[in-house]
Amino acid sequence: MPDMIKEEAASGSSNFIWDFVKEDIGPGGQYEGMTVHTRFPPEPNGYLHIGHCKALCIDFGTAEHFGGLCNLRMDDTNPAKEDTEYVEAIQQDIHWLGFDWGDRYFYGSDYFEQDYEFAKELIKKGLAYVCELSAEEFREFRGDIGIPARSPYRDRPIEESLELFEKMKNGEVEEGKMTLRAKIDLASGNFNMRDPVIYRIRYINHHRQGTKWCIFPMYDFAHPIQDALEGITHSLCSLEYEEHRPLYDWVVENVTIPYHKPRQIEFARLNIDHTVMSKRKLRKLVEEDYVSGWDDPRMPTLCGLRRRGYTAQSIRDFVDTIGVGKTNGVVELAMLEHCLRDDLNRSAERTMAVLRPIKLTITNYPEGKSENFELENNPTDPESGTHTISFSRNLWIEAEDFLEEPIPKYKRLYPGNEVRLKGAYLVTCTGCVKDADGNVTEVLCEYDPGSRGGDPADGRKVKGATIHWVDQATAIDAEVRLYENLFLDEQPDGPDKDFLQCMNPESLIVLQGCKVEPEMGRIAKLFDEEEDRTSKNAPTFQFMRNGYFCLDNRDSSADHPVFNRSVSLKDSFKPKK
RNA sequence: AGCGCUGUCGCCAAAUGGUAAGGCAACGGACUCUGACUCCGUCAUUUUCAAGGUUCGAAUCCUUGCAGCGCUGCCA
Prior knowledge:
Number of strands: 25
Helix content: 25-40%
């Protein structure tokens, strides 16, 4: 299976990044003949979501495509934001997607010593200086469009900066009192070049370095150095770093790096409609209990998607399908859903489950009699075999499969209409039983004993639909959770929009007392006994005519199976009302 | 307003000066023991944001506009 995934990813169509890379390693290119080396640098301050998948597939995928390598690097230069808590989850999610970094696992903080030496090198070259502007002053002196920035400390003698930087490092300077700034161009139209801060003081415990350091490099300084030290050729990142590229190049140019200079290339990050992608907003949903957690099946997080039933293959197919470009667009969720259906249609075992049960009584079928039928596990895969289902006089069928007064084009049960009970018999509806309030409580029908297996003895064409059912005698109860979009608004992430106001109050519908084949009970029990249920996909099925469902990796138990609807089946039946 | 990026079907996206791929969605139809799947067909020719220009030929090159996104953290 991993090999299949590999080939799939490596065979994707080209894109502008691959064109650049091809040029770079080709004849006359800046990395002629070299091994392509990329990196995936998540900041360990939250869970990976589908937006990260795009970056993941681009970083690892590009390396794979060119027979190169991709490093995993935890970008943890800001001690105030990162936490070890997320590190393991990030690794787990990447592995689940099918990517592997081998022994190339790093932390940005592992380079603090080198960062420090490179900073001193810049000072010595007259390319960096210690600035004593406070944060407020810094902002005031920042200038504006057309107005250059200022710093009274810009021309401080090299020796003095060296001394002060040493003091900063030794903890002799209060937090916020001094910064180290790169000396570039205070008048640049690109604000990142207006003598950016490259070191700040922070008296906070770092999740890996402890209290060893009290000065920390900024992203713009640390990242190019990390890339350079790891021998990265192509540093692929999202569009918002485009204007940071001149600074990236400046650092790489002015610091004595042991290898080649890496090249930064930017691509558009992923947006999907009806969802939010920012960590801040996702965190809010979790912390304010709008969802049950980071792995709520409605969340776009990888753990949420996995719990929902999304396969790694479907997500990688999706990323492959949407392509790589520089246009900031919003991809329709329908595209992702298509990829899931496509994958699950091939692999998911078919089973019958009745979500909103109503009794069906076959009045001319002997009481107490029972027989077995074989149901194909997957019609798209003849090798997948069959499984046995029991049948009797009393069945459960879907409530919506009966209508006392049929609507136009309705092919299911209504008085006088003949339908097929999947894999069993043809039955003709003879009426129904209602309670005192007029609600239908039981549907009545008569079966054609000559149609055993589902085909009529006389070979007549059955015009009615084939409906699914479960035997009352053997069915077991299950909880089924149906999910809709978390947000009604197409773009809850849009400007001037309060995403919390766009939430769909009916994004989760819980159904109890759903009737499933007894086989599901055995599978739920086996799943119950598994040790690590969250790092891989739970058993997944197609509930015929209903959609794809998987066991919930948190709440399902042998006594109380819980299924999540991963995605519905497409439905072209549109009754005119 | 300064800097940067981007405008090709409802959505994503090819086309690298040679006459607008593909996928998703949608809509028809065929098939079907899942109203699924599959298959067939339709879906940018006063056409590539607009207007000019260069060229035998322009989505591609030039000019001028217009629109969208991003940027003035001691975040990444």
